[in-house]
Design goal:
Low-confidence stretches of chain B: none
Shape of chain B: globular
Largest sheet of chain C: 3 strands, antiparallel
Helix content of chain C: 25-40%
CATH topology of the largest domain in chain B: Cytochrome-c3 Hydrogenase, chain B
Chains: A mainly alpha (about 350), B alpha+beta (about 550), C alpha+beta (about 160)
Low-confidence stretches of chain C: 139-161
Oligomer: heterotrimer
Strand order of the largest sheet of chain C: 2-3-5
CATH superfamily of the largest domain in chain B: Cytochrome-c3 Hydrogenase, chain B
Helix content of chain B: 25-40%
CATH class of the domain at 40-134 in chain C: Alpha Beta
Strand order of the largest sheet of chain B: 1-2-5-4-3
Number of domains of chain B: 2
């Protein structure tokens, strides 16, 4: 199989054998993916969010700058980047400045493991899924750094919430994702079911041997409970409504973001939206068949599905109230954790019986 | 002899029997009889009255006279029986040089804040008051601004030492246990304080241990302002600015009722119907905003309920604009009527209202399924911010806050004014005592207001009599000297009362605004302590505070 | 859970319908009522310098200067301070001051909002709307007659003299 890196090497006209060449190829490949993702995130964070939310709320939203207001993105970027970088006096300067970079870096690095389809995948290690989930968990670290180093009580409360929330929803996230792994092993007939490309490959056929039906073998149909649990865990892991407690606008001003402005804020903001996309990409790869779909190229399907995921997240944000911290933890530890394990055991049990 | 008169006579006897040395005199105010009490025994008098059923302390106002200060307590009976409604005033004259009155805050907890306000603005000291601090003005303020002798031009600068950190000692760490808590200033600029409220909060983890609301950031001395304007026209634009979120018509009615009562001005029936129509439209707009902002507090920014509520408020506001010429600062009511007749073409305007009323049930269904039906919201709002009816009465809470605790006290119902008595409507109560109930009361009241509006439109459409919008009002209004009147109307947030003391000129001698938000906020620490931080914010939203009215 | 789903349904319905309520302001002007109270317009030819407006103004926004023969010299109005209560228009016996529907004001400093007589006369009519058509101000209480037309005639004749 031709990997993405080989394709990039071909494009650059080099043979990918010496370490230097591999390094250059890797950098170029990563830049391509990151640019694509940044464009998409830029569109959705600045423009689509406003448009979609306005539509839910019977409004018009941005439509002045450029066609359908699309040029609001460069305008906003210019505005945000030209702002003065204010570093409050008493902050822990290292942590304060490092946190935004780390936030953006971790979440963008996580995209390396995402099989966008059409061969677009930077790294495809045998334990790709675990890597991806590990990077998802890493996203809590910069939040903690930002909150702790800001020396602001609201930031402090925000990061405390993030820690509690990340720990509570970490396990359900991983365990609900693991529920698809046995299915991957069965459908893709592979000994490396954690490899992300295999996860997608396993979902290409029709559903469960029932031929003639056009329903594809996406794991959302084979594992609906796991899909719902994973969705909830993703929302909590990346602090989206109804679990957006770390930045809870009406309670904590802006939570861990309170002291940030200018470029630093842009990076944290970007990381937040990238995280939604990363969550969407994971969900797409695990449950929505990755890039599977008719006519259009796989990568278009993949990005389309993540867009839909993003819209759903914003739709939830507009409709569902934020839960309280104790309710959040109670739900995480008392219900979600048990349900995910139960689901995993059931999956294993059923497969054991069937096979 | 009516029940009320008989009761007053019995009361006279009871008070005289039990507290012979506490009573100085009996007086007659325009709204109710008054008991002139010995300032050092006024708490006993109020206690006796409370035992006799006067269970609601509306307001405490301080009045300055040439030879004395007076602290006036307005007491009311809140019962389910409308016939039983009654009011009585207690007057405590105080020494002109060193005014001091015994506190009644141990009888009515709600008196605490009212007395602090009287101390702050008029300088009457309340003995044995648990917390005799300034409330509206900064603690370093010099002088008491409502006194005649107060020099407005006096500089108010404060040295850094005097103002270094006024809260430092109060919250200094005393022992290890205090290290477990965190002091947090919420506001005055905070997204959820709906204006400029400063909450001095002590948190234990996420749980609120102690909260002390600090108000006065929006104090504009509205009372002082009104005391310098004439009754007939000049005061009327100002009520719009107390509760400035579209409740202007209700505020104007509060003033109109008080002075029309005092100066004995009649209002033509046609104008009364228009007044009710305008008021209820105003109430719908105000409640829509309350519901929307409550949702904003619980859901976070970007929620759509706020947008829907704002949209519906906007429709109402356009009707009010057509009627009065402004969207918020209406200045539409006049003494003896309203400023102008309904906008022409009348049919078109009625059509607008009817269109809104026809759409309303569908919209209310949406609100209900978004708020009442949503399990996650119920989880957040049910059982939080519990306000027991007894506590509510103790603090003088009124309006949807009180009705959310199951007490059906509505000034329109018990002490009817204007045209409300002729119309068919119900008082909405819920007895959940929690945040959700308070919001549901508002939703219910929107529907009741819509009913009233519909009846008014019916009446106005078929009106064939004289369209008299104003009665003949004397060129200048001068109530006799030293007459006092306290009347209240049901504002958007509760009992909005005006206490006017006249000195025989065209301008009031004392103009006291009894703001419902002020009393509703006074109870806030009772509701919030022991709750989670998030619920405290939700509770604040459910009280529906407007700081123009709290601080005045 | 059903309630949450129903809530999602409600918002989805709004999104699918795609109705918008807001207007694109400068291109499309919001509906202004005929009675709307905006910037003042002053008519020097009508004014009889009776100073009633100055007297009734609740917060001293209007400042009139006359010479010793009580002929008007200056008519100043601080729009930044005005509360738009419309009492000046209501009290004016000759409609010399009128609140137009014009509401689009901007200024770099507070001082720019202190309008003098010429500024007030230059205030444009908003879309040619004459506010008086929509109002039947309560003149009777002020000048002792209920007949609007009389007022106009009085005004005209005053001017003619």
């Amino acid at each position: 199989m031709v990997t993405f890196n080989d394709a990039v090497a071909d494009l650059l006209g080099v043979d990918g054998f010496s370490p230097l060449v591999e390094f250059i190829v890797g950098i170029v490949g990563a830049s391509i993916v990151v640019s694509v993702m940044l464009t998409i995130i830029g569109i959705s964070a600045v423009w689509l969010k406003r448009k979609w939310n306005a539509r839910l709320g019977d409004r018009i939203a941005v439509n002045r700058i450029g066609p359908a207001g699309l040029m609001v993105m460069p305008a906003d970027a210019l505005k945000l980047f030209s702002k003065e970088v204010v570093v409050p006096e008493d902050v822990d300067r290292i942590g304060y400045k490092l946190a935004p970079m780390l936030a953006a870096a971790t979440v963008l690095a996580a995209f390396a493991f995402i099989p966008f389809g059409s061969g677009l995948q930077i790294a495809d290690p045998e334990t790709g899924l675990i890597f991806a989930l590990a990077f998802a968990s890493l996203s809590a670290v910069p939040v903690v750094m930002a909150g702790y180093s800001s020396k602001n009580k609201y930031s402090f409360l925000g990061f405390e919430r993030e820690v509690a929330q990340a720990i509570a929803y970490e396990i359900p996230l991983v365990v609900s994702a693991l529920a698809v792994v046995p299915l991957v092993a069965v459908f893709a007939d592979t000994s490396a079911p954690l490899r992300m490309s295999n996860v997608v490959t396993a979902q290409q056929g029709p559903l469960l041997g029932v031929t003639g039906l056009p329903i594809p073998n996406w794991f959302i149909f084979a594992q609906p409970v796991a899909a719902v649990l994973f969705f909830v865990s993703i929302l909590a892991e990346f602090s989206r409504n109804p679990f957006d407690l770390p930045e809870a606008g009406s309670e904590l001003v802006a939570g861990y973001l309170t002291e940030y402005g200018g470029v630093n804020f842009v990076l944290l903001f970007l990381a937040e939206f990238a995280a939604i996309y990363f969550g969407g990409a994971l969900f797409t790869a695990l449950f929505l068949g990755g890039g599977s779909g008719p006519v259009l190229p796989a990568v278009v399907w993949f990005l389309g599905k993540t867009f839909v995921f993003y819209l759903v997240v914003q739709w939830f944000r507009a409709t569902i109230p934020r839960v309280r911290i104790d309710q959040l933890l109670e739900f995480g530890w008392k219900y979600l954790l048990e349900l995910t394990f139960l689901n995993l055991l059931l999956t294993a049990g059923i497969l054991w019986v069937v096979l | 002899m009516s029940v009320v008169t008989r009761r007053h006579e019995e009361l006279h006897e009871t008070i005289e029997d039990e507290l012979p040395d506490a009573i100085l005199d009996f007086d007659e105010h325009h709204n109710a009889p008054a008991v002139v009490a010995n300032p050092s025994r006024v708490d006993d008098v109020v206690r006796i009255l409370k035992q006799n059923g006067y269970n609601h302390l509306s307001s405490v106002s301080a009045v300055e006279y040439d030879n004395r200060y007076e602290s006036v307590y307005h007491l009311r009976r809140i019962t389910d029986d409308r016939e039983d409604f009654d009011e009585i005033n207690v007057v405590a004259p105080a020494d002109p040089d060193e005014p001091a009155v015994e506190t009644v805050s141990d009888v009515f907890k709600g008196a605490n804040w009212h007395e602090r306000e009287a101390y702050d603005l008029m300088g009457i000291r309340y003995d044995n008051h648990p917390d005799m601090r300034r409330i509206l003005l900064p603690e370093t303020w010099k002088g008491h601004p409502l006194r005649d002798e107060y020099d407005v031009d006096q500089p108010q600068y404060t040295t850094l030492e005097a103002h270094a950190n006024p809260i430092e000692e109060r919250y200094e760490v005393e022992n290890d246990a205090a290290l477990d808590t965190m002091f947090l200033n919420i506001g005055p600029h905070h997204p959820a304080t709906h204006g400029v409220l400063h909450l001095k909060t002590v948190l234990d983890g996420e749980v609120v241990v102690d909260v002390d609301p600090d108000i006065g950031y929006l104090h504009r001395c509205e009372e002082y302002l009104c005391e310098r304007l004439d009754y007939k026209y000049q005061i009327m634009p100002y009520p719009d600015r107390w509760d400035y979120v579209s409740a202007g018509m209700l505020n104007e009615m509060a003033y109109a009722r008080c002075i029309e009562d005092l100066a004995e001005i009649d209002v033509p029936e046609y104008a009364q119907v228009i007044r009710v129509l305008a008021q209820e439209l105003s109430r719908i707009a105000a409640h829509m905003l309350a519901v929307g902002t409550f949702a904003l507090d619980i859901y976070g920014e970007l929620n759509v309920i706020f947008m829907y509520a704002f949209k519906d408020r906007e429709i109402v506001q356009e009707m009010l604009e057509d009627l009065s010429g402004q969207r918020l600062m209406f200045n539409y009511l006049r003494l003896g009527g309203v400023a102008y007749d309904l906008p022409e073409p009348r049919d078109e305007w009625f059509g607008k209202i009817r269109g809104f009323l026809d759409d309303l049930p569908g919209k209310m269904d949406e609100y209900r399924s978004l708020l009442e039906g949503n399990e996650l919201l119920r989880k957040r709002a049910e059982g939080t911010g519990i306000l027991e009816p007894e506590t509510a009465k103790e603090y003088g809470c009124t309006g949807p806050v009180l009705r959310g605790s199951g007490v059906g006290y509505d000034v329109r119902e018990v002490d009817p004014y204007g045209y409300y008595d002729e119309l068919d409507w119900d008082v909405v109560t819920y007895d959940g005592c929690d945040n959700l109930s308070r919001v549901l009361v508002r939703l219910g009241e929107v529907e009741e207001s819509a009913r009233l509006v519909e009846q008014c439109v019916d009446i106005l459409e078929s009106w064939d009599g004289d369209r008299e919008i104003q009665s003949r009002v004397p060129r200048s209004i001068t109530p006799p000297a030293e007459t006092e009147n306290y009347t209240a109307v049901e504002g958007a947030k509760g009992e909005l009362g005006i206490h006017i003391v006249s000195d025989g000129t065209e301008k009031p001698h004392r103009f006291k605004i009894r703001s419902p938000c002020f009393s509703n906020l006074a109870v806030f620490s009772e509701l919030a302590e022991g709750e989670y931080l998030a619920d405290m914010i939700a509770t604040l939203g459910s009280l529906d505070l407007v700081f123009g009215e709290v601080d005045r | 859970m059903m309630g949450v789903l129903r809530s999602l349904g409600v918002t989805a319905k709004h999104a699918l319908k795609g109705d918008t309520f807001t207007v694109e302001y400068p291109d499309e002007s919001p509906g202004i009522s005929p009675r709307f109270r905006g910037t003042h317009k002053f008519s020097l030819s009508r004014c009889i310098w009776c100073r009633m407006c100055e007297e009734v103004c609740p917060n001293g926004t209007i400042d009139i200067k006359t010479n010793e023969k009580r002929e008007g010299e200056e008519y100043n109005l601080n729009l930044g301070q005005c509360i738009y209560c419309r009492l000046c228009e209501e009290v004016c016996p000759v409609d010399a001051i009128i609140l137009t529907q014009h509401f689009e004001l901007n200024a770099g400093t507070k001082a720019e909002l202190e309008y003098n007589m010429d500024d007030l006369m230059d205030v444009p009519w908003y879309k040619g709307m004459d506010p008086l058509e929509a109002r039947e101000p309560d003149r009777g209480a002020w000048i002792g007659t209920d007949e609007e037309d009389d007022v106009w005639e009085t005004a005209e004749s005053t001017y003619a003299d």
